[in-house]
Amino acid sequence: MKSEEYLMCEKNWVFYTLILISGYYGAFTYVLRGNVFCNAQTGNVVLMGMALGSGNIRHGLYYLIPIGAYMLGSLVSELLPNPIKHTLSIRWDTLLLFIEMLVVLGLGFIPESAPVQISQVAINFIASMQYNTFRQAQGTPMATTFATNHIRQIGIGIAKEIKGKDTTHRKKLFKHIRMLLCFLSGATIGTVLCHLFLGRAIWVTLIPLGILLSQFIKEDVHMESLEQVPHGH
């Protein structure tokens, strides 16, 4: 399919932008909000099991909060798309970007002395909704909130390079490489700015989010796109 035949929420550049923002979120929560990564929950499940296995039941049960926030995000993003587009005449992915910008704006006002769990749970929630909403970049399954699968796919692509002369995989390989580099760039930039501006550094992500939102709204003006379902849903 040609690029123009995909919805805005499926465009490659949108996924590159989103994963750059997610890398930034990862740096933000690790540097300033409790030395944790909130974009995925594997680590929290492991930490919960370690706490329970060590007999620290209360600490183990604490991890139900971020895990529950992540689960709630996927629940909300699964139930709301159809009601939203028929009620507000905009796509769910457009509303999600607006919600994400509101959350980011609020997080920037939280003082450094506030409990880190506020920021952790908020980013757990929006990361889950983003991961569940943006699934394929122009036909290629992608994750916009963590890098594990991109690293795996790069390894697979290199193996195919070694195996033979077929080059059909290269487009997908380079796409995963760009995703990984964008995630790394977001984490690098986020770390530098978090050290400079502390909690208000999160506001920097409003710039790329605002650019995305403006393009999504422009597409939603054409009502026929509202009924088109993104690939992978």
From TrEMBL:
Keywords from the named record: Membrane, Transmembrane, Transmembrane helix
InterPro entries: DUF1275
Membrane-spanning intervals of the chain: 12-32, 60-80, 92-110, 180-203
Annotated signal sequence range: none
Keyword Acyltransferase assigned: no
Protein name, entry field: DUF1275 domain-containing protein
